[in-house]
Amino acid sequence: MTTIQTQPIEGQKPGTSGLRKKTKVFMQPGYVENFVQAIIDATGGAEGKTYVLGGDGRFFNKRAAQVILKMAAANGAERVIVGRDALLSTPAASNLIRKRGTDGGFIMSASHNPGGEDEDFGLKFNTSNGGPAPESVTDAIFARTKDITEYRLLGADDADLSRLGEQSMGGMVVEVVDPVADYATLMESLFDMATLRAMFAGGFRMRFDAMHAITGPYATEILENRLCAEKGTVINSTPLPDFGGGHPDPNPTWAKALMDEMMGANAPDFGAASDGDGDRNMVVGRGIYVSPSDSLAVLAANAHLAPGYAGGLKGVARSMPTSGAADRVAEKLGIDCFETPTGWKFFGNLLDAGRVTICGEESFGTGSDHVREKDGLWAVLLWLNILAARGESVAEILNAHWREYGRNYYSRHDYEALPLEQGQAIMAGLRDKLGDLPGTEVQGMRVKSADDFAYTDPVDGSVSQGQGLRVVFTDGSRIVLRLSGTGTEGATLRLYLERYVAGPDGLDQDVQQALAPLIAAAEDLSGLRATSGRSEPDVIT
Ligand code: VG1
Ligand code: CO
Q1: Which of 213, 220, 223, 238 could form a disulfide with 248 if both were Cys (CB 3.0 to 4.6 A apart)?
Q2: 129 and 15 part of one domain
Q3: Which residues form a coiled coil (predicted)?
Q4: Dist. CA 330–CA 540, nearest whole Å
Q5: Cα distances (Å, whole numbers) of residue 305 to 32, 301, 327, 501, 511
Q6: Would you give the DSSP letter of residue 434?
Q7: pLDDT the model gives residue 8
Q8: DSSP secondary structure, 217-259, as one string
Q9: What Å distances lie between residue 279 and 105, 368, 372, 509, CA to CA?
Q10: Can you list the alpha helix ranges (DSSP code H) found in 103-255?
Q11: CATH number at residue 422
């Protein structure tokens, strides 16, 4: 065991979902080492502990895995369970952490951010419940990165991560496992596999775009091998270190080929895509796109049709910027609906306390209490289970949902990589005005309330401030503005827009047109486009 002197490295502050930086930043000498030691120190040391380790396969994944193993060994860990070739999707890692009763896990991913030597890398720590470390822990980790003086690293050969089974590293056991097996078993326990198999056997066609990211092997095993969907159902199924040069972000912009196919003449019945680390999902029906906020609401309303949720839901939770569509479902079901800050770590306590069963975010994230992360393939399988049970198309289900609950028109406009000071100035400009807004009129709409969202965790009472500026109008429409906490370049501003239409009229408008007054109001209030000189967002979802 070697103890190596080091000095604090600036900027190792975990964001919305772990530490994300340019890969070359992570490749600097001591960078991974400092951060990993800070995690170990801030969580009471590694002595005698068992961890899970895996990542989305992006460039530097294997290298970082060896460093983490040698550090765990040098810090006295007893065992590390690693996915073969250092691969694990984020939900599969969460499952392993829970199933094996471990002390937590290291997940190497920058999720939906592009990968490669000149792109992004990331590392996050999940606690023993399988979920991303809560703010109290990430704050302690960050504090430790600022006064770290040494780290421990075993001088040993690399582990052979291509070989399943146990091997020894110093006194520590490195246990290499199949990354897919336990996860696939978990999915089989939640969904009606026989009915799904029958649906595919009956000619149901789907396309799953794995975007050259981690879900390829998972989707191929579950959809093609176990459910017997046609070979070739899963495309871009081999995880690549640079995701084939694409953005592994399942949205209409970056999964355009899938969108085109689903809107085309010979579209299959159902389409889906997942992100770099497998926790996001986009769902598309033949000729119809399902917004993530609507997807959450439809899943909540129909989850009882799947065996794993036949007993009903305890409650639902959504992040603050996510539309209120799920709230209406919760109201009808007579269950609680919680509104949390952005990021899955805020759902952990509610899930652990048994107060919610299903959670979701507008950013293509849905999940349940089966793990403590959002789960892309889970959402796809739940949709399939609902389609099979109802015997209806995605369009029929969505239209029926809107007729029953009304429609929350919703869109997110991203302005990416603005100069940092400019992004902060735009936020500060709107924040300063919030107090004066209630009662005023913007674009013919009256402001009902305006604030900077703060959240008090109902389980442990912890408070998180500064979670997004929101302006709510008297008709229930909203504008939310916040700074992204996952980017690695400058500031990315996210503008979230929502308007509710009760129906029965006006349920099939063009989304951007339906939101036009809010888009104009957002500009009046924030001066976002004027200040940034951008005439339109980089990405609209
Ligand atoms: C984004 C999304 C947020 C999500 C987070 C991690 O964060 O908005 O909803 O939880 O990414 O997702 P931000 O701070 O950039 O808005 V993942 O799939 O990248 O781990
Ligand atoms: Co992700």
Answers
A1: 213
A2: yes
A3: none
A4: 28
A5: 45, 9, 19, 27, 29
A6: G
A7: 97
A8: HHHIIIIIIIS---TTSEES-S--TTGGGS----STTTTHHHH
A9: 16, 12, 11, 30
A10: 135-147, 181-190, 193-201, 215-219
A11: 3.30.310.50
- What's the pLDDT score for residue 1? 66
Using one digit for the tens of pLDDT, what is the confidence trace for 241-288? 999 998 999 999 999 999 999 999 999 999 999 999 999 999 999 999
Nearest one of 334, 269, 332, 326 to 298, comparing CA atoms = 326
Is 162 within 8 Å of 356 (Cβ atoms)? Answer: no
Record the pTM.
0.94
Question: In this predicted model, what pLDDT tens digit does every residue of 164-219 receive, in sequence order?
Answer: 999 999 999 999 999 999 999 999 999 999 999 999 999 999 999 999 999 999 99
Query: Whose CA is closest to atom 19 on ligand 1?
Result: 111
Helix then strand then coil, in percent of the chain rounded to 5, is 35, 25, 40
Looking at the CA of 361, which ligand is closest?
Answer: 1
Q: Please confirm, yes or no, whether 89 is among the known catalytic residues.
A: no
What total number of domains does the chain contain? Answer: 3
Give the H/E segment covering residue 376. Answer: helix 376-390
Q: Could you tell me if 209 and 99 lie in one domain? A: no
**Same domain? 136 vs 199:** no
Q: Sheet with 539-540: list strands edge to edge.
A: 441-442, 445-452, 469-473, 478-483, 491-501, 407-418, 539-540
b/e code 288-311 from CB counts within 10 Å (16+ = b): bbbbbbbbbbbbbbbbbbbebbee
- What is the C-alpha radius of gyration for the chain, rounded to an integer number of angstroms? 23
Angle at 354 between CA 91 and CA 320, to 5 degrees: 70
190 and 261 in a single domain? The answer is yes
Residue carrying structure tokens 């070697």: 2
Task: Return left, alpha or beta for 178; rule: phi > 0 is left, psi -120 to 50 is alpha, else beta.
Answer: beta
Domain end, chosen from 387, 405, 423, is at 405
- Count the Cβ atoms, other than its own, within 10 Å of residue 524: 10
383 and 411 part of one domain: no
Q: Which residues have CB under 6 Å of ligand 1?
A: 16-17, 111-112, 275, 279-280, 319, 342-344, 361, 363, 365, 484-486, 494
Structural domain that includes position 463: 407-540
Phi, psi values for residue 395, rounded to 5°: -60, -45
Q: Which residue's alpha carbon is nearest to atom 18 within ligand 1?
A: 111
Count how many Cα atoms sit within 13 Å of the Cα of residue 423 in the half-sphere of its side chain.
20
Ion ligand 2: residues, CB < 5 A: 111, 275, 277, 279-280
Last residue of a domain, one of 177, 193, 221: 177
> 248: which 2 tokens?
């592994």
Q: Using an 8 Å Cβ cutoff, are 278 and 392 in contact?
A: no
Residue of 109, 111, 237, 532 marked catalytic: 111
CATH number for the domain that contains residue 68: 3.40.120.10
